[in-house]
Amino acid sequence: MIATVRPVRHLEGAIRVPGDKSISHRALILGSIASGVSKVRGLSTGADVQSTASCMRALGVEIEGSSIGGVGMTGLRAAEGPLDCANSGTTMRLLAGLLAAQPFESELAGDESLSTRPMDRVMGPLREMGAAVAWPPLKVGGRTRLRGIDYEAASPSAQVKSAILLAGLYADGTTSVRETVKTRDHTEVMLAAMGANVMVDGLRVAVERAESLRPFDIDVPGDFSAAAFWIVAAVLANSRIRLAGVGVNPTRTAFAHTLNDLGCDIRITNPRLEANEPVGDIAFGLTHFQRPVTVGGTRTAEMIDELPALAVLATQMIGTSVIADASELRVKECDRLDAMAEGLSAMGADISVEEDGWIIKGPCRLEGARVDSRGDHRIAMSLAIAGLFAAGKTEIEGAECVDISYPDFFDHLEYLA
Fold first, then answer.
1. Which of 144, 153, 171, 375 has the largest count of CB atoms under 10 Å?
2. Over residues 333-357, mean pLDDT
3. Given this model, what pLDDT does residue 290 score?
């Protein structure tokens, strides 16, 4: 599919972005091992989350509409064949933690892209816990007892942390993860709400073995990473957009704080809690850029999924922007550092790729061009936002990949424009 985007002068309207992908994955997995039926409204409709739902069904869980029929901590059964994670790294890594503790072996498979993504960060700590793990293909489980460990994460990863905590629910003793940067805490928030013994002390998170988990009833908030594309669009167009019901968990909102520090006016209104997750509406005031953006270290790790959108914004800022310490982008659905540099360069941006980031000189007059998403949803959406502010039409190859996280993206773009 080739999507065509044309420039706009103004954007206006209110939309609700898809349900948070991270929370949706965890709700499906944890709801499946709860003791009873959980109700989850607003699950992400993206293909990645559907992969998790399909895998849980293959493991014997009934999922119908908003209901998840939890089978309890010991109720999962072996699937009849390999579990298809498709393109979802979150599905594969989180299920590796859950299934490593089961008395049966499971094989986790994926598409060509997923098969090349690193799994050693999950396999190592699971082996330390006593799990049987093999790769490739990824096979886990078959040993009934795991032991708790105190794991020091070498690089920030909420997926790795969550995999270890899921395995820790079945392990003897205490299982803890010590991080260098506080990553998304949706797993520990949801586990605490379900009655698990979760301990959080700064950058250390620990769980105890659980005999049972309570079912839950939640409305999944909108995905902040999906909202980031519209945040950039609204900022560049000084437009009246309202994003309703977005998750504003403090571990997810570094992107908004960074932009506000640069002179944007991003406001969170109507704050509330949904199942202990902070939620709010996002609105915008006038933007007055004070300086180009420079991010690295902890701040880069906190907004890793929003960096392609930030690169688009940097092309329109005065001066030289530096986005560093982002080597993690090289091992996503594609090499996002190269993909964004290729796409934005084709549109006339002055962007160079470093080993772990970009140097972007602005402001640039963007020109419409034919660009390649490389099958990566965040690249496709970022280049589409760039196309809104480019002269002439922008054609995005492989635009159907937005279905991975945001099937309605181009419909929302047309509505707001």
1. 171
2. 97
3. 79
Give the CATH architecture of domain 21-218: Alpha-beta prism (3.65)
Q: What residues are labeled active site? A: 305
Whether 367 contacts 390, CB under 8 Å: yes
Does pLDDT of 391 surpass 90? yes
Locate CATH 3.65.10.10 in the chain. Answer: 2-19+221-416, 21-218
Residue corresponding to tokens 């796409």: 343
pLDDT at 110 over 80: yes
* Strand partners of residue 12: 240
With vertex at residue 47, the alpha carbon angle to CA 376 and CA 168, rounded to the nearest 5 degrees, is: 100
Mean pLDDT of the chain: 96
CATH superfamily for 2-19+221-416 is Enolpyruvate transferase domain (3.65.10.10)
Three-state helix/strand/coil letters over the chain: CEEEECCCCCCEEEECCCECHHHHHHHHHHHHCCCCEEEEECCCCCHHHHHHHHHHHHCCCEEECCEEECCCCCCCCCCCCCEECCCCHHHHHHHHHHHCCCCCEEEEECCHHHHCCCCHHHHHHHHHCCCCEECCCEEEECCCCEECCEEECCCCCHHHHHHHHHHHCCEECEEEEECCCCCCCHHHHHHHHCCCCEEEECCEEEEECCCCCCCCEEECCECHHHHHHHHHHHHHHCCEEEEEEEECCCCCCHHHHHHHHCCCCEEEEEEEEECCEEEEEEEECCCCCCCCCEECHHHHHHCHHHHHHHHHHHCCCCEEEEECCCHHHHHCCCCHHHHHHHHHHHCCCEEEEECCEEEEEECCCCECCEEECCCCHHHHHHHHHHHCCCECCEEEECHHHHHHCCCCHHHHHHHHC
pLDDT tens-digit profile of 269-311?
999 998 789 999 999 988 888 789 999 999 999 999 999 999 9
For residue 276, the model assigns a pLDDT of 84
